[in-house]
Each structure stands twice: as C-alpha cells, then as structure tokens.
Amino acid sequence: MTVEINPVSGADLDAILELGERTNEAQVIPHLNAEGQDTMRAARRSDITSIADTQTYRALKATLGSKLVGYIAWREGNYVAQLYVCPQHQRLGIGRRLIEAVKAQTSSQSLELKASVNAIGFYRRCGFIKTDGEQVVKGIRYVPMVLKLEP
C-alpha cells in the first residue's frame, strides 16, 4: 500500500486528535518533568484541534489505505506547529514526505519550528538546523530550528 498525502478535512479531526495525543503521550511526555507533563497535557487537546481553524492553519494528512498515520500543520506561511507520525509507522519516510509537501506549498524562504527534544535528530536529517539552544517554558523542553528553502 502507498502512503497518500492530502489536505486535512473536518472529518479527520477525531482521528488526528487521537493520533496526536497517543504519539505525544508515548514520545514527548517521557522527556518532560512533572510541570512540563502537566502543561503539555492541559494544552494538548486545544492545540491539536486548533488546526480546524483554516483561517490560521493549513494541514495535511498522511494515510495508508484508510488509516491516518500522520499529519502536519503550519501557520503564518512557514511555522510548523505540529508534526506527528504514528509510532509504528515512523522511520518509513512519512514525516519527511509531510515536510516536503509543506515545502512545495509555501512561498516562504524557510520553515521554522520548535522541536521536541526527542525529534531533534529527525529534523536534522531533514535539513533543519538549530537557531538556539534548548529552551524550557513551563517545563516543556524544545529546540528552535529552521530549514532554509531554495528560492
């Protein structure tokens, strides 16, 4: 079966919320202290469902057959706010394909994001570079990164 990349629709939001929460719990939460875990869990649902605001966000989904296996959401032309790939489908190029799809749809000269500490290696392999050291806000750890795009 081939992974397909398509725009997210309102009908996808429940599956996106479930995928985002499950992946976040398994891969981000373990890297945070108690304050960060509480902060992340408190904000996570509203952050994920905010991608339904099509005035602010653009979002793409990756599906394998009828199963949602990943999604990416960005705003302001170049800020990647969310990128999740189902853990059992990681290391298959799905995250990279989602980033490539955003690159093809943006007119910006760069993509920016705040990488969870567990995802820094993935973003480096995609060409992102750190723009600053690790940051901690309300216990949530991240590293600002940027990917320069060809004009």
From TrEMBL:
The keyword Transferase applies. PROSITE patterns: GNAT (PS51186). This is Acetyltransferase (GNAT) domain-containing protein. CDD domains: NAT_SF. PANTHER family: ACETYLTRANSFERASE, ACETYLTRANSFERASE (GNAT) FAMILY PROTEIN. Pfam families: Acetyltransf_10 (PF13673). The lineage of its organism: Bacteria, Pseudomonadati, Pseudomonadota, Gammaproteobacteria, Alteromonadales. InterPro entries: Acyl_CoA_acyltransferase, GNAT_dom, N-acetyltrans/Recomb-assoc. The keyword Acetylation does not apply. Keywords: Transferase. Residues 3-150 form the N-acetyltransferase domain. One of its GO terms (molecular function) is acyltransferase activity, transferring groups other than amino-acyl groups.
